[in-house]
Fold these 4 entries.
Entry 1:
Amino acid sequence: MDEINCKQLVELVTPYLEDSLDEPTLDLVEEHLVMCDWCVDYVEQIRATIGAVAGLPWEPVPERLRVAVAAALEERR
Amino acid sequence: MPSASSTTLPDFERLVEQHYGSMKRLARTFVASDAVAEEVVQDTWLAVVKGIDGFEGRSSLTTWVFSILTNKAKTRGVRERRTIPLSCVGASEPDEPAVDPDRFQCDDDAWPGHWATPPRPWQRPERRLLSLEARDHLKAALDDLPERQRVVVTLRDVEGLDADEVCDLLGLSPENQRVLLHRGRARLRAALESYVEGV
């Protein structure tokens, strides 16, 4: 394979971001990204998605759990 | 004066809050109801508080907590005869492309496999994706993911565990872990795209 298309690139984004592509494939991805702003946008959107998931607010803790943990901590003292 | 062990205790109240949603989501994949999942989360924290002195720091505290949770949830799941073969994904799973194939040019077009309907850049995503509405949208999309994708995305991208830790916790091969993460992230991107383009 001497080059990849956009459809192939979007399937390589996860190992690309994990830094787990073999060298020849990494070269293909990087060569494609130099040529293709649309795929650069796609990769940026995946990055933004990961960031947004990481930034989701914490979910409310039931009072029962809070009380149980506090009691267990009290018991340690 | 506080004893040495009490001064080095982590801030449990904060940890419980920080991890509650993810812990419940993970537990829920092994047991049959939200109520039982909540019990598993509670049992886990009680075990963590009790056993914290034995925590040797060979993994992160988060990973340790999630491994206790997984064990407890599995035990409950077996008792309820609900065991999810979380590891059985891959070859048998139907192909799920990251992007709708209709968005690429087909073989008769000038540039087969290249974008026909390319993604439109998100302006200032760090601001737009932080709105309350965007977060609700994303949270709903996460809840809608197929279970195994949801758990892997939660552990990787919400909790920040690394790929090896997630494979260990869930008994997944590296390839399966990657496929689930890939598909889950792709679905969430698509959900955010439709949100961003709809407003």
Note: The domain at 123-196 of chain B is CATH 1.10.10.10 (Arc Repressor Mutant, subunit A).
Entry 2:
Amino acid sequence: MRLRFLLNGAVQEVEAHPSRLLLGWLRETAGLTGTKEGCGEGDCGACTVALGDLDEEGALRWRAVNACILFLGQVDGKAVLTVEGVAQGDGTLHPVQQALVQQHASQCGFCTPGFVMTLFTHWWRLGPTDRASLDDLLAGNLCRCTGYRPILDAARAALALPGGDRHRDEAWRIVRQLRAWHDRPPLARGFVAPRNLDALADHLAAHPGALLLAGGTDAGLWVTKDLRDYDHVVHLGEVAELRRIGVADGHLQVGAAATYTDLLPHAQTHWPAFADLLRRLGSELIRNSATLGGNLGSASPIGDTLPVLLALDATLVLRHGERRWTLPVDRFFLDYKRTALPKGGFVERIDLPLPPPDLTLHVTKVAKRFDQDISAVLLATAFRHDGHTIHTARIGIGGMAATPARARSAEARLEGAPLTPATFQGAAAALASEFQPLTDLRASAGYRLEAARAALLQAGAAAMGDEVALPLEPVA
Amino acid sequence: MSRVHQSLAHDSAVQHVTGRARYTDDLPEPKGLLHAAVGLSQCAAGRIMALDLGPVRNSPGVVAVVTAADIPGVNDIGPVFHDEPVLATDRVDYWGQALFAVAATTVEAARRAARLAQVTYAPEPPLLTVDQALAAASFVLPPHTMQKGDVEAALATAPHRLACELRMGGQDHFYLEGQIALVLPQDDGGFLVYSSTQHPSEIQHKVAEVLGLPSAAVTVEVRRMGGGFGGKETQGNLIAVLAALLARQTGRPVKLRLDRDTDMELTGKRHDFKSRFEVGFDDEGRILALDAELAARCGLSADLSAAICDRAMFHTDNAYYLPAARIHAHRCKTHTVSNTAFRGFGGPQGMLGAEFYIDEIARQLGKDPLDVRLSNLYGPGRDTTPYHMQVEDNVLPELMLELEATCRYRQRRQAITAFNAQSPIIKRGLALTPVKFGISFTVTHLNQAGALLHIYQDGSLHLNHGGTEMGQGLFVKVQQIVADVFDVPPAWVHLSPTNTGKVPNTSPTAASSGTDLNGMAAQNAALTLKDRLAAFVAERHQASPEEVRFEQGEVVVRGNRLAFAEVARRAYLARIQLSATGFYKTPKIHYDRDQARGRPFYYFACGAACSEVAVNTATGEHRTTRVDILHDAGRSLNPAIDQGQIEGGFVQGMGWLTSEELWWNEAGRLMTHAPSTYKIPTARDVPHTFHVSLWERGENHEDTIHRSKAVGEPPLMLAISVFLALRDALASLRPHSRPKLDAPATPERILWAAKALREGR
């Protein structure tokens, strides 16, 4: 493949193999060693770079991403900023860099370039500096030395410091270049990035063996961990229709290649509990790349959004060649990582019915760590009730079977039953007898059952107005 | 002006934030460089029946493959005992053990090739746990005992007795920069090794021994590590040795950089322990006797386990006086990776045991654990440790009372009791625990250090010492120390990479001793040069050397002010030697291990922490909501750096005791070998209320460098307060209960503990 992008403001024309990843190219080919490899799986953030593209208004938008699992082809027509490009040309430090130095926020320094880049994107958009927002922001950047306190302080201090003018003053140059590339021919050899749905559908139908690449937060690991080599990659990210999110026909329609970051504000509007889950799904860096369609395509039993889609009765719009059809999400998962999608097909859109006023969505994710951890159990419940009687109940559950699943016997115990603790006790017992989870590194089978039961009871308590939440603040 | 006791930024801070700081993988790659990868065992225990490397050799890009048969010297990388092969010969003893190494033209080619070996094993049932090893009497080293007083008699007559048992998990270092070495063959048959190591001298010795060369033929250099935490004290040996073997075989430079998964499978971790205690005490909870039995999982070889287990024993008292004590420790041999140094070096495991049995006493008596802690502290007449060392400079009684007051422990205790009474699911807990950590290598000969200082004709200084920089701020502290001798700006003192060719026979940068040892050595070198310059200037100005003062970059004598650079230039012209070495060895220490008696530590570094947690007892999820720390760093050389060590150590310790869980499957394969499965703390895990203070009255009573105290390891153990706060929250579920909670306190363990308490078990 041959691609073009901006690297620290300079145009790059690059010839590379389709499964070349950005980090390797930066370090080995471009000789920019400031960006580090810590894990090769998008979990530590040492490889963070800022990826720039144009938002709906045509303004430059910088988002932090994991270079270690980003296919080089994904940056075609975009701008990449690395730690080497953050300071002014004369060496004057950017406010983010100044703040990190002033707050003594680096020790070994290996994670620091990644923090610089994540914080740079935050500085760029003048992001909020309350603790919760910063925790969300930094969850994908691990530091083993500092204990994070000085980094959090630096994140706050950076926004108050002057400087960094070059980036705002010269943004127009980047915008002009990205606009000029807007109508460039799509990448079509080796790394194929169609621009519209029909072209994508045709290409995939004709080449069902190609690697279907959405955000790459799973597929990138097939390269870094499984050492696979792909001669033919089909990237969804350039298809505008697939990135669209909007309301139509009583549904929130989410393009399969829309990122979690793009989905988050919509989720916040309609299902705050879903938004709360998204904020701890992966990390800022992962959410900037990862997609709802990708989560469906991977069809992992521990895919965190999938129980929510089940609870919300989502409908999938599937596509294969010229054929387009819809399928309720609970018929999509056939077996372990096997779906109803035919080879060469793809998910086009996810339709989420807008919540009626009496619907409450509740999500419990249990993991060893709050952020960016694969769930031991994830339980999503959507109840409609009038305060006395439960009319409908949908329970989606992850981590309990070979696929994400609905807890149908528990649902049956709830529907039409009075909204009382006893009802939920009964449903929880039914839930526990419905699944035979596994014991693995994340949890024992017994714990999964127990936690799922507790999660359902907590969802019931919440429906009855008694939310159980861990306090973040100490006792008075 | 004083150049120490100042909060200077880390010497590399600007390089860190600009990405200019070079780690080993960032060094410009030499021409002809080959990349290496390691072939790992896929069997935990058994004989190797066949090892077919044909597919590896034939894989694209492969240039060389080495096995044990290609080792010209000794097939051993054991740092103390010679029991750990570089490469497996006829058998494997853990899943992930190195079988061979391959060099290829690219990293990917090497890694792909390394997976292609056809290996046939005759598998044996592996011993994976401490329990299995104890049952099979499988040990890497004989057990060891420390004893003081008549334990049986004291236990028999004690008004109260209890027995308790605690298991605590290991911990992966998760340095962000994985293990790496770059080896360049030299034209004289020697090798230059760039290694991410805390112990360049040991890398030098091991490369030389394995290659069958004299030590002088091998030079090791390290500018900085991307984190070490003990994981690069001995674990870099294998990496450097493999790269050196391939470099020797090919005559080309070779770089071996482990990917994260290989790093976590192939290299050692913190030891997991099972500890059992029998303790006798009075009505106040004062301990009369302790019988402790510790068992550590050491893995396939001894590595540093002798000293690590000894240190666990040394800290089984933590801060508490034990009138009679027997501390017995087993060093279990298992078919798992050989466990190694990790910040605290056994101290955390010993200390967690101590805080656990104290907590048990308090809960059995229905007392506030803080009261039991305070009443058991060392004090006048109660000042001899189980290894017969007298505790002097006993700061904890004062320090803990100060923290108790400033963190409002008693008021919050009441508030938490009230909160828990009305909250059925969410429970809060509180714990205030001390740390008393012995400073010195317990292997006495390691307590030495050297430095080399040059002054150039322009007055700039070039400093080398035996310590390595892993982020802890050693270099900036030593820079400050040297700058202080001459009263010159610290920036005039240039720090060179640690290099075995400049300072030989160095000790590892470990045991929190980096600044204590190297700072003193560097100061001694600087004082030597200062004396030479002072004598020279005095002679020129017909003054006595005592009249010569070094002030703010100038040398002052009899009203004359000379620029430091001018003095250096004139001294050179007068043929004054402007280069000096410095040396230091820690005084006063001695230890007779056979008798388990002596003074292994020069002094103790102390601190205390109060942690508050909230627990969802239905799911086991929890948060740490507030932490207050008061720590004694003596007269801190650099308060900002020390605060960083305290906070960072605390959070790392919190990870050890909560979210970081190592999990092996039944076949003995570690399944938590990357950050996706092994969870170190994130920013969110840092408590919203986090007060960290250096103890203002802190001053080392011993003559350490500027009366500072070592600070690298001790703060990690402040996090024990988090674990005990979780236990405290659980205990609120049932009066006078002694929750059964092992570490790490994952949601699962918390839930089971809560369930047991609710069900009256």
Note: Chain B touches chain A through 98 residues (CB under 8 Å).
Entry 3:
Amino acid sequence: MNHLTSETFHENARAALADVQLRGALRNATSLFGERRLSAARSLKNWEELRSQARSIKDKVLLNLNVYIEEFVRQAETRGARIHWARDGREANEIVCRLAKERNARVVVKSKSMTTEEIHLNDSLQDEGIQVIETDLGEYIIQLAGEVPSHIIVPAIHKTKKQIAELFTSELGIEPTDDVAKLTSTARTILRDKFAVADVGVSGVNFGIAETGTICILENEGNIRLTTSLPAMHIAVMGIEKVLPRFGDLDVFLKLLPRSGTGQRLTTYQSLITGTKRRPSDEGPEELHIILLDNGRSRMLAHPVTRQSLACIRCGACLNACPVYQQIGGHAYGSVYPGPIGAVITPQLVVFEKTSQLPYASSLCGACREVCPVKIDIPQLLLHLRTEISQGGGRLDVSKLKRSRFESTAFTLWATIMSSPSLYNASTKLGRLVQRFIVNKGQIRQLSKISAWLFPALKAWTNGRDLRPLDPTSFRSHWRGELSRNVDESKRN
Amino acid sequence: MNQSEINEEARQEILNSIRSHLATSVPYDQIYTKTDSGIHAAPFDDGDSEVAGCGESLVNTFSENLEVVDGHCLIVSDDESAADAVNEIISSLGETALGPHRTALSDAPIVQRISGKLRKVEYVSPADGVSDLFTCDVGITSAQTAIAETGTLVLDASRERHRLASLLPPVHIAIINESQICLTLAEALAGIQARGEISPTVTFITGPSRTADIELTLAIGVHGPQKLYVIVIKGM
């Protein structure tokens, strides 16, 4: 399967825009979650203070990440957890496969985790001949269909219940039905059997607490509880940025995450797992393994702008708020992390040159920044990444990027004109002269045709746009004429 | 290199990478870093303004918020009436094909106390093994704390064998005392820590299992219980 298709973002987006069913589903989902988030946020008097507090905690962690991560490791190990360090996805996958093989595992059950999606763990396990079952209902549907998630919170948002019913009929052999409750209970019954025989459970981590070595995982369905309770081995894959200093910090983040994600006050279940069971007769796995994954994260610490990306708690609020995501959905982004946060995380995590279209997949309207529970300035990040792409330098290896000579020349020219009053005057005069020949019914139309022979590089921008012509007289001449006199008079009055 | 050497090498490399990248960012952060004091400040006044029943008793607030998330709250006066309530819930489930309702019990004292007063049930103890629990109709547990503002139960594995009894059966009944209810999430978190060594597993439960993964249509009871009843014994 081709995992990363960000290179063809424009084609992906165009295909998504032509998909009427997809756009209807996206409209429903994004508006519903948007409304729920808003009313959930309003139910707290101090929402804004909570956001600031959460961000301060994240900033503190990130500026001292080595200290907190080492404290987390110390505390978790003291309580029986085994810690593994993975520099990249390949290393993390190798560790999971090795641990599973040590237990002679034939069946691995998985709960939804963006981090394991990021490293494509399922492929690695399957290559080793181990059956891996996604147990979150949405992820299970996606796995049956051989697709990838299109939303962080609702992975199968792009599928209708009719499509899901057809999938269940062909893959699981059930009677055709469009009853959601029946589809759900079918999945429950089939997955129960898998849970009963699974040797290993793999989960992600929402928060790791440095003070106690606790991992905290949120969910609504109960599959995470099953994944972390039934199999003899629990493997948790955790990005290094997921650490919080204190146990009490959960108060802030448990208020923000469910409200931002689904508009719930709390998700149905929170599992707080601190090491392994103390007595052999206790319920729960015998072994707990925590894999700490870097995979490009530590590099983001180098600059305060990029570092913000690591504050993300994966709530999905920015997806729902984004006018671009609302139209094209998750698949068009061509990576595991879609939407505004995906457009900034993906280029930093993955090969930059293959994802350089993503930072441009935004109108910079700022809706993502407004809703982000940890106040990540995503537009600032997008601009930062665009700068890096256009300068072809900076922190990331962008030597392989195609840089636009035209773009840098055009902006240099623009800057020169805009900073000189006489050049500016001359250029607007020239503009007025030229536009006489191309203004049609008060608008400059068919810009794309004009730019096609004049500035081919502008085509992408001019394709969908008409321009208003310049006013026949400039502000300056207005000012020299009546305007300044009026102002003087009004001052005297 | 053996596995532990590779692990140690990866550890060193990741920590070095964190340190070196943070070091290059220091000049930028002179204006950016704030003083840390107060960011983990004790929970401030953060009660939900829209929480039902604020100002009334904790038990009413808990009950109302549990109903919001599709759980059911029953308030009773003593063990006897708690047992009656459980009997009523179980009889409302109807007859199963196999006869008596298979009921998983946790080892909490209050659960053990009322278990003798139940009718038409066959007991399954968590010690009987996992496969027996898979076939249970009802799970009965207590909880160590309940959070009024969210309608949440907090179950601590070091004090009660709750994990599977509260998860596998389609019906979960929890019996708690009124005195176990606190108002806020922050209080509950502080309570978990105040007991000293932290429990290996603490589970927060807010309503029955749910999903909206198919066309955003709410379905109750996907992997966990479909029904959640909380019986609160008053004034103990």
Note: The longest strand of chain A covers residues 233-239.
Entry 4:
Amino acid sequence: MRADRAPAMPNADDERTVLQKRVDRRRALGILLGGVAVGAQAMTACSPVAPMTDEARETRLLAWREYIKGNYRSMTETERGETIARLERLAKVTRGADVKIQSTSAQPGVMFGYAFNISKCKGFRNCVEACINENNLDRRAGTQYIRIFEMEDGVVDLDEADATFQHEVPAEGHFYMGTQCFQCADPPCVKVCPVGATWQEPDGITVIDYDWCIGCRYCMAACPYWARRFNWSAPDVPVAEINPNQHYLGNRARKMGVVEKCTFCIHRTRQGRLPACAEACPTGARVFGNLLDPSSEIRWVLANKKVFRLKEDLKTEPRFWYFTD
Amino acid sequence: MHLKPFVLSALRSATTGGRRYHVWMGSLTLIMLAGAYAYSLQLRYGLGVTGMSDHVSWGLYISNFTFLVGMAAAAMMLVLPAYILHDVDFGRAVLMAEAVAVAAIVMCLGFVVVDIGNPLGSWHLIPGVGYLNWPRSLLAWDVVVLNGYLVINLAIPFYILYGRFRGRPPEKRRYLIWMYIAVMWAVSIHLVTAFLLAGLPARPFWNTALLGPRFLASAFTAGPAFVILLLWFIKQTTKYEIADGAFAKLALITTVTAQINLIMLGSELFYKFYSPTHHGINARYLFFGLDGHHALVPWIWTAIAVNAIATVVLMIHPLRHDPRWLMPACAALFIGIWVEKGMGLVIPGFIPSPLGEIVEYTPTVVELGVTAGVWALGLFVLTVLVRVALPIELGEVRSPYIEKATPSAPIVRPRSTPPLRQPTPPVRTR
């Protein structure tokens, strides 16, 4: 009927795969129900009462295919490509944003680690701002992954610290300590997820499949470092401010009602770049690198500085160390 | 061939009644509708319409959930003596207790559903099409045991009632094994829910070995207390006879468990406050307030006072045997434990946060509306179940296909027993 049919719509290929029985039950069910949906939409289209634009039809179909897709970990490369195509198209159709979503997997021989120099940090919070922009964090809710705690000299105690300071920094007689997701080697948040929507990647980054998360927030209760954030309402990022360089497991658009977290800027670091926070830090307090590379700066810090981690007694083995000059 | 009349008669039992019955059910329906509207707002605008935040990420919903899991489990405390220890006094109370269990589980599932941010994704929990992270996640365990418990508690009463309905007394050898399973299952649903919280070292307030036993003790206090109230109401308003012995035994159970509950609370307080450590900071917030924040302080002290007074009343024998004291004491225990175990257990686990920040929590109107709606749903289910079970138990309702000669039911009552409730006369004489 129409020539401008979008490529992501169900087509003859799907039919063939069904016939060849090379799909699992969920997918088959989805394709069948999808057919029903198309039929229903065709009827709506014929009805004089509710004419539906091609775009609305396409959006609805894409949303439906997104709804029935599986967990990212169980997807084949082809399926990953398909869902990314759908998500990019949806961003274009619904927001008018041209985004590029990658699915770069962990590079062999890489285990990311982070070190934070307490002596250098001056509490400027450039890292916080860079993180917000880089990771498309919800502007309306003011979501932040990084917290900078201001502490009085001589007391390393988060209970006495203030993360909401609003004055000129560095304040006399104070020092600063940043927290974010520590990418624990034994993450309690991963263990508790009832649907396996969050897991640790081979390079040590704990990620979330935002489309698989059911929003129970058990992981938030389980995290000893308060690293996870929830989308209490639909996240809002002005189109002009959207960072188009995205990763499926990282900074792509989240939806309402799901959990998100710091991924050490997975879309940058897997391509050999620094996380946005490390790049933005004007004092050089942030050291990021590959723990498996003996010549990396992070290895030098671990070997030559007196390092410590927060709440070591919990045995979650964070890959985030603190040190002083 | 008995199934259709069974369903029809159940529908009839549930939809006929006096004026007060209809007012009650009508009110519940209105509250449910209001709750549904509140939930629709939450669906549209997100959980941001509640008082929860990244700091206090569970609130009223999960508080009610933990409390009601206990209610569901506690109903089995009646089943145990009745079916396994053959205590005849309890026999008639059991079906009512199972109705309480079913209603409580329905509410539990309701509170979980309204709490999750992406309810449309619930199918991700179904093994096969989705993925259930079992046995690693305690929440996956909870999904399994709660649904299993619901099925068991629907199946056993159905078997018993349907048997009586078609004039075939239920056979013990068929259902007794399920009773054993149900009793163990009851303990498991509550322990699993306690472990769900106790297994988190991130939250020292919950991360204690006593949490599981404390959950059981408080559940086995609030549960029987509620069942006492329900049975007393049934006894007052229907012809269903419940032996005084059943009340005495239930009251005794409640008394003992209420004492154990207070002892455990005491040891928890000793542990947290005698040598105050960093791990006691949430308890400090709960009981005394922290840095000028003390939203929960009046709640917890009221709850403890109410619990203690009610326990003392129950411990005095003449008072325990007097309904005028027993019923208020049971109501007080029910409410006291609801506060202590709901608001007083879940919320302080989040305050202060693991990074020491204090953000308080107050439920919003929308949240209260949804909560009221789920409670109304549970009470609605409970009323319907009791309403269906009573006439069958009384022998008033029987399958029309039973031959006249068949002996009626184990509870022998003449067929001519007047209906459960007389139709309301047009003019009230009183």
Note: Chain A touches chain B through 53 residues (CB under 8 Å).
